[in-house]
């Protein structure tokens, strides 16, 4: 083999090696981004459930107060007390 062919083969192998390293690095970066996004998704889902729970509690609270008031009024009415409320 002559020198020109050896240099071309070495250059081709070098380019191929650099392409493989680039692809592996890109793949690892994509994997890290995906893992980070999955963590963010988990955190956002947890925040969403917490907000839903707070909202649900806030919506149910007036109903509980109303039911308790009705129970008290019914108990007063049952005892014969005057209910001006």
What does this structure look like?
91% of the residues lie in helices and 0% in strands. With 85 residues, it is mainly α. The chain starts with a helix and ends in a 6-residue tail after the last helix. 0% of the residues are buried.
What is this structure, in a nutshell?
The protein has 85 residues and is mainly α. 91% of the residues lie in helices and 0% in strands.
Helix content: over 70%
Q: Structural class per helix/strand content?
A: mainly alpha
- Average of the residue pLDDT scores: 87
Number of strands: 0
For the terminal residues, how far apart are their CA atoms? 107 Å
Identify the notable features of this structure and list them briefly.
1 helix; rod-shaped; 85 residues; mainly alpha; 91% helix
List the helices and strands and how they pair.
Elements (H helix, E strand, L loop, with lengths): L2 H77 L6
